[in-house]
């Protein structure tokens, strides 16, 4: 409904208030305006702090199906009618949907990491546990088959490669790291084989540890990483830098790609790299050696 009627909520894990001003409707409008492929992430009943057992996940699945109906349903369907009343009669197309995000017990992981090695404590130290919550696979399978039954064309994204545990169209790959490590990650997907391995969505990546407010060194390392994405494009289906936006008057994370305030905006050097890659598409990958 109207943004004026949205109550907002405390985004407790990150410690800030969300106005709920960017909802599903606004997100789809933004993707359309940018000419971007929308990827909707649904709540799979697992947060960084707690999780819903698979036996109780039914209402969350219904929420996901309702959201898909809101996006793609005809104007005379239940949630398509809500969309139409908001001003959008024609449905949008939705191909990609992620089942949850970073389904790990982050606080438990960080607590254990602090106890064993406080000097190296970081979110990256828990990044390999993105399917670590005990309910994740069960919840994922329940979502997967319920959504595929109604929307067989949709490409569903897992939080990690699940191997033989569950069908996987694509899996999320996240990294926030240092300049040197990001540079080395240009080889992260070199050993993957299309048809044998699941497809990759590198959906969150950025130089964080020494990126400052966004600097040239970080941008160069990210550019090197992106050459690896292009070199392995037979297995890396999609990629997106993160975070995309930050309000310069309410900055809680840095660096970010685009920084607006009420009057203007600017992009970091990483933004220039993203622009460079989007506007100059190569057709031949030239192997290079850097010393």
Automatic annotation (TrEMBL):
The keyword Manganese does not apply. Residues 203-290 form the Alpha-L-arabinofuranosidase C-terminal domain. Signal peptide: none annotated. Keywords: Glycoprotein, Hydrolase, Signal. It holds the Pfam family Alpha-L-AF_C. It catalyses: Hydrolysis of terminal non-reducing alpha-L-arabinofuranoside residues in alpha-L-arabinosides. SUPFAM superfamilies: (Trans)glycosidases. The keyword Hydrolase applies. It comes from the Eukaryota. GO terms for biological process: L-arabinose metabolic process. Belongs to the glycosyl hydrolase 51 family. This is non-reducing end alpha-L-arabinofuranosidase.
